[in-house]
Amino acid sequence: MKTDEAGRLTQEVKDCGIFTSIESAFLAARRQTLQAWRAISDQRRATPGPPTKISLLDTEWSCDLRGGFLVVARFWVHDRMRLDPVGTPAGGGTEM
């Protein structure tokens, strides 16, 4: 979630890459979640107000960052078939 020019919360979608294994995709999602956690923690420390619990939650398909009960950031891991099989040049043919 991010705030637009009018101050409303809106979703931001960003492609973080294509991975050859589910493990590496989840590691990348967790890394992105930790970076978001650091940025939010720094921002909240600089702003006066009551403390809010920030938690990281690994789910079956994502890594979530929550502030209290609200999802602040979610990094999804999607499974999709590649258009070009691993090891095959993007142009089509096979290498010998």
Account of the 3D structure:
With 96 residues, the protein is an alpha+beta fold. The chain has one domain (2-76). Helix content is 26%, strand content 23%. The chain has one helix and five strands; from the N terminus they run ββαβββ. It has one helix spanning 22-46; strands at residues 2-3, 9-10, 54-58, 62-67, 70-76. The strands form two sheets. The chain has a three-stranded antiparallel sheet, with helices on one face. Strands 1-2 form a two-stranded antiparallel sheet. The longest helix has 25 residues, at 22-46. It is elongated, with a radius of gyration of 18 Å. The model has no long low-confidence stretch (mean pLDDT 79).
Q: Mean pLDDT, nearest integer? A: 79
Backbone structural class: alpha+beta
* Radius of gyration, CA atoms, in whole angstroms: 18 Å
Number of strands: 5
Sequence of strands across the biggest β-sheet: 3-4-5
Any low-confidence stretches, pLDDT <50, length ≥5?
none
User: What level of helicity do the residues show?
Assistant: 25-40%
Mind describing the biggest β-sheet?
A: 3 strands, antiparallel
Order of helix and strand elements from N to C terminus: EEHEEE
What is the helix tally? 1
Count of all domains: 1
